[in-house]
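Model: You mentioned two targets. I'll fold them one after the other.
Researcher: Yes, keep them separate.
Model: Target one:
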Amino acid sequence: MKKSVKVLALVMVALMLCMSLASCAKKLSGSYKGEINVVLASYEVVYEFKGDKVTVTRQIESLIGDSEPFVLEGTYEIIEDDDGELKIKFEYEKDDDVIKGGTFDFEEGDGYIKIAGVKYEKQD
């Protein structure tokens, strides 16, 4: 009886360890800001990460004036593709309609991230 209790306890500890390792997905926290330049306008984009949630704010600055900020809220996930490359997958919601989002190349460095080749600096 005592031996079976010890075995059961050992199995439970092993199971909890496996479950905790499986839930250790890469997460980001804080705000990252970058700028995207297009022909006659530039976009200031801020990603704010908290847990698995993301808020993206885009402000357009053009020759004819600045636009109102466009804000998307949704979720994100950092995944590894079959080649071992990191990707970031977004899913957004806007006014009760799901805006799909997408999957993009991802890189993280000291004080920055890159999404689809665009560098976003960590904000304090």
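Model: Target two:
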Amino acid sequence: MTLIKWDNKPSIFKDINEWFNIITDDFYNDQTNINNSWNPNFEIIKQKDNYIIIAELAGLSKKDITIELVENILKISGERKFNDTKNINENIYSQINYGSFEKSFKLNKNVNKTKINANMEDGILQITLPIIEVKISEAKKIKIN
């Protein structure tokens, strides 16, 4: 058993330390981490016949996400909203990011744009981009008259 000496003498350093602890405790208790934007994690996988784009979008549903294709650019955007606005002042600490996001991918010429497919399950968005074989046209010789 270890005995620790109890020191009950008044000290200005103890008082300052206690004041500092009170100030910092109040400071951290009042913090919330609600951002206007966030960057979800994305992954791209190349298979034999497809490219697969996977996004971690926990807390979002299909209606919260928009996927657009404009020319060769695939744009994925969405928003995770903070649902409990009445308890926002009671939130002590959060590492969950809220707000909107947008991510764009430039597609290769070998992607079949008419057969792109998207699926959402358990907060994971998976977009399948089928690969088509690009035919290289043969050079045609032109006879000079």
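Researcher: Noted. Anything on target two?
Model: The chain has one domain: 11-82+91-134.
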